[in-house]
């Protein structure tokens, strides 16, 4: 009789622990352990696809670099990209998509060559560079055919660390 009473108490507690454990596991399995840098969560650089909606949630200007593992210019730019990504945590969202490994990773963004960088304001709208920056950096602006509204601001080729910081300053970021 005492065994049944004990079982009636322990069994629900065990079930509750198992359910709680499953809930914790399921809610944390897709999250990578977050590191912090001066109290700012370090966001990942490498992605398999563009997720502008998720990136807009950070409320920061966005740069997406499209490249390929076997692309020499992409690899020469990689150290600067990683440094700026690390140094600008909490100020800019920087992502890299290897479009050779993930051919559909660019979605609708017009990628003709790699490396190519695309810039968005914090609200997800395309960044509109000044005339000076437009000419100095060689941006290409893509517009929607039906409305003429700016769709994408694209830079093709390698950007140095200083180039990226110049663009971010014009986007209103203190570098």
Topology:
Blueprint: H1 2-28, E1 36-37, E2 40-41, E3 46-47, H2 52-56, E4 62-67, H3 72-87, E5 93-98, E6 116-120, H4 131-137, E7 140-143, E8 150-156, H5 161-170
Parallel strand pairs: 3-5, 4-5
Antiparallel strand pairs: 1-2, 4-6, 6-8, 7-8
Describe the structure.
The chain has a six-stranded mixed β-sheet, covered by helices on one side. The protein has helices spanning 2-28, 52-56, 72-87, 131-137, 161-170, and strands at residues 36-37, 40-41, 46-47, 62-67, 93-98, 116-120, 140-143, 150-156. It is elongated. Residues 28-34 have low confidence and may be disordered. It has 175 residues and is of the alpha/beta class. The termini are far apart. It has five helices and eight strands; from the N terminus they run αβββαβαββαββα.
Brief summary of the model shown:
This protein is α/β, with parallel strands linked by helices. The chain contains five helices and eight strands.
């Amino acid at each position: 009789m005492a065994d049944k009473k004990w079982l009636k108490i322990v069994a629900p507690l065990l079930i509750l622990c198992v359910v709680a454990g499953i809930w914790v596991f399921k809610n944390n399995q897709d999250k990578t352990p977050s590191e912090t840098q001066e109290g700012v969560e370090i966001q990942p650089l490498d992605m398999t696809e563009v997720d502008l909606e998720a990136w807009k949630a950070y409320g920061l200007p966005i740069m997406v670099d499209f490249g390929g593992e076997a692309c020499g210019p992409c690899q020469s730019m990689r150290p600067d990209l990683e440094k700026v990504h690390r140094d600008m945590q909490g100020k800019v969202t920087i992502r890299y998509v290897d479009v050779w490994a993930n051919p559909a990773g660019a979605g609708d963004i017009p990628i003709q060559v790699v490396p190519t960088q695309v810039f968005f304001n914090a609200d997800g709208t395309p960044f509109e560079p000044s005339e000076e920056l437009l000419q100095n950096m060689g941006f290409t602006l893509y517009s929607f055919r039906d409305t003429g509204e700016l769709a994408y601001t694209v830079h093709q080729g390698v950007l140095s660390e200083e180039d990226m910081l110049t663009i971010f300053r014009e986007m209103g970021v203190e570098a």
